[in-house]
Amino acid sequence: MIVVAIAGAAFVLLPLVAMTTRVNWAGFVALVTSESSVSALLLSLRTSLVATVLCVLVGVPMALLLARTTFVGQRLVRTIVLLPLVLPPVIGGIALLAAFGRQGLLGRPLELLGITVAFSTVAVVIAQTFVALPFLVLSLEGALRLAGTRYEAVAATLGARPTTVLRRITLPLVFPALLSGAVLSFARALGEFGATLTFAGSLQGVTRTLPLEIYLQRETSPDAAVALSLVLVIVSLVVVALTLRTVPGARGRFAA
Amino acid sequence: MTLHLEARIAERGFDLSLDVAEGETLAILGPNGAGKSTLLSILAGLLRPDTGRAELDGTSLFDLSYGHWLPPHRRGISLLAQEPLLFPHLSALENVAFGPRSAGRLRAEARVSARQWLSAVEAAELWDSRPAQLSGGQAQRVAIARALAPEPRLLLLDEPLAALDVAVAPTLRRMLRTVLAGRTAILVTHEVLDALTLADRVVVLGDGVIVEQGATAEVLQRPRHPFTAGLAGLNLLTGVRTATGLRMADGAVVTGSGTGAIGVPAAAAARPAAMSVQLEKIAGPNVFPVTVQDLEPRGDSVRVRSASMVADVSPGRAAALGLTPGLPVWFTVPETEVTVYPR
To answer: Which residue in A191, A218, B89, B253 has a CA-CA distance of 20 to 30 Å to B325?
Structure first.
């Protein structure tokens, strides 16, 4: 069993180590600071951040409704919300195009108002939010169920209105899970490729995020692609480390 | 009358009506599943019965005949549970200040009042502690202060001492006695000592209905229900009153002194320590054939259990008789040790 586990860890680690052997260290700084690289990195960070904020704003009420209420069709709603998690991102992109594209369901009326969504930075954010939202809803809903309603009931008998209970008890109790959910959403948004390419295209400085830039560079300058990949690996590592630091803390608080 | 409650839940067979007077502490006793916690949840507003109504100090808490239901936060009823359930992300002081703050008091004002309540439960020095740092007894003190801080019109206590160390419980029981003096409260407990020291009156629930009620001492000395007799540590024999005692359903005759007119349903109580155990049938009144079910050490005596009665004998006596489960024996009790009363 131990051997298999070590083999599994090696399986994950080996490609990453192999990649670092391909890095052109002499030209590393120049490669990652080129104009197109910096612009892709900044665009990625900016859009992922906005997408994460949107996930929190939309995902918190969704998780609360799923965890704290019962309504007809709740299982169906939960399944649909979690769908982007298992859907190939390209399909997500095609679906978003059907909704927000120029000829799309919502896209056409928006077009008449002079708003074009597809192939803009807004489209990048929409694509990222679409794929990242389930991460936040899933982790928060689980935490809410785990925390239970007993503290909320006590707060209510102490005279707290439902909004006060939410603000002072429920949300602080699940804050670690909210944080780790947000970090996971951010990471998913940062790595988003398929839906972005399909729905937002690849315009430098507008919709070409870091993963798109890496894929493009691979054709013309493999050294730059490897160098940028390393940057993304480092960013992802930091994100995972942050999540691991917050999640056990969350468990400890609920066990009390 | 401060509190009046009528509530029914058909599915659980829960159907009761009770009153609590101003400043009175009512103890609710009963076996697990009797509906004690259901009763508290209904009053706190956490569980809605099928039908019923409740009124507290002239305010209607709910009246389901026209769908009226006051939410928990507008009832002025605090609930103290077995576990302290202190909010883990707030300090002891912030926990206690939570109620006053929710009532709209300013932060500084709420903190002053929280400090006073912490002092009242002798936990003033714990104000800055997080719940995770507190011992079980300390946490329950803070929880008591938190339940009292909103100055509730009715205090509900759900086995408040059950989760505590035996070493800590007596101190907390004494504190609750002070706290409950003059306060309208309902105390759910399975501990007869809690009922004796804290309550003015007891209600015994069984399967969702009231099986007996009355002044605490009266109910415990003259139990009418087997559960109450068990709590009070008494043997209970029921039947019909005769001139010398009572006649049980199986025809056995119990001799003793007491009250009640001949022919009325009656109960007889006897202490286990007053019972003695014989291997052979002896002459005289109150000789009952039983089979030993099990033996249980109790301090300096051995409790001998049968299906209907228990007897406490000395370990030496138990050894001399060679008592083992399954052995047929005779339980006897002097007639002076048997109290008979109507049920």
So the answer is: B253
In a domain, B226, yes or no: no
Q: What's the pLDDT at A247? A: 56
Cα–Cα dist A57/A137, whole Å: 11
B105 at the A interface (CB within 8 A)?
no
- CATH code of residue B288: 2.40.50.100
Which of B177, B192, B221 is where one domain is finished? B221
Q: How many CB atoms lie within 10 A of CB A68?
A: 14
Asked whether the whole model's pTM tops 0.95, one would answer: no
Q: How many domains does chain B have?
A: 2
Q: Looking at the structure, do residues B204 and B303 belong to the same domain, yes or no?
A: no
pLDDT, one tens digit per residue, over A123-171 is: 999 999 999 999 999 999 999 999 889 999 999 999 999 999 999 999 9
Q: Does A251 touch chain B (CB under 8 A)?
A: no
Q: Counting Cβ atoms within 10 Å, is residue B184 exposed (0-12), middle (13-18) or buried (19+)?
A: buried
Q: Which residues of B fall within a CB distance of 8 Å from A156?
A: 45-46, 71-73
Same domain, B195 and B298: no
Q: Model ipTM? A: 0.81
Query: Do both B28 and B93 map to the same domain?
Result: yes
Residue A94 is assigned to a structural domain of this protein: yes
Does residue B227 sit within a domain? no
pLDDT of B92 strictly over 60: yes
Instruction: For residues B58 and B179, give the distance between their C-alpha atoms in angstroms, rounded to a whole number.
Output: 24
Do B256 and B133 share a domain, yes or no? no
Domain, as residue range, for B247:
234-342
Contact flag B44-A153 (C-beta cutoff 8 Å)? yes
Residue A169 contacts B where some CB pair is shorter than 8 Å: yes
CATH for B191: 3.40.50.300
**Å from A24 to nearest chain B CA?**
49
* Token pair recorded at residue B255: 């001799």
What residue of A is the nearest CA neighbor of B146? A158
A49 in contact with B, Cβ within 8 Å? no
Contacts of A151 in chain B (CB under 8 A): 85, 87
Cα–Cα distance, B61 to B49 (Å, whole number): 12
Question: Using the beta-carbon criterion (under 8 Å), do B89 and A172 form an inter-chain contact?
Answer: yes
CA distance B37 to B53: 18
CATH of the domain at A112: 1.10.3720.10
Q: How confident is the model at residue B1 (pLDDT cuts 50, 70, 90)?
A: low
Residues in B closer than 8 angstroms to A256, CB to CB, are 88, 131-132
In a domain, B137, yes or no: yes
Report the candidate in B63, B65, B67, B46 with the shortest Cα–Cα distance to residue B54: B63
**Residue carrying the six token digits 């990242």:** A132
